[in-house]
Amino acid sequence: MIRSELVQKIANENSDLRLEEVETIVDTFFDSIVEQLADGGRVELRGFGAFSTRARESRTGRNPRTGESVDVDAKKVPYFKPGKEMRERLNQSV
Q1: CA angle at residue 30 from 28 to 34, to 5 degrees?
Q2: Which of 3, 43, 58, 90 could form a cystine bridge with 51, CB 3.0-4.6 A?
C-alpha cells in the first residue's frame, strides 16, 4: 500500500472528512514520527510496533560500478520492531 492508497482508504471509511483533511491528518501523523526520531526519540504504537533509530559507525564501502573504495560517514538509520499483536496476526495462518 502506498501513501495515496492509505489516504483514499481513510477517506472512504470517513465520509464526513474531505480528502484534503485526510491528507493533512496523514501528513501530520508521519511528520510527527519523523520529528520524534530526528530528535533521538522513540515512537511506540501499541499493537502495531515501535520506531526508533540505530547508530551506524563510519566505514569503508565500495562503489558497485567502479569497485573503488569510498568512505561512508557514521549515521543514524530508522529501525522498526513489530509489536506482539502484529506478529500474531501475520502468523495466524501458519
Answers
A1: 110
A2: 43
The three grid cell numbers given for residue 67, joined into one nine-digit string: 569497485
Per-residue pLDDT tens over the stretch 58-78: 999 999 999 999 999 999 999
Please give the average per-residue pLDDT across 47-65, as a whole number: 95
Q: pTM of this prediction? A: 0.78
In angstroms, rounded to a whole number, what is the distance separating the alpha carbons of residues 36 and 28? 12
Identify whether residues 28 and 52 lie together within a single domain: no
Residue 88 to residue 94: CA distance in whole angstroms:
10
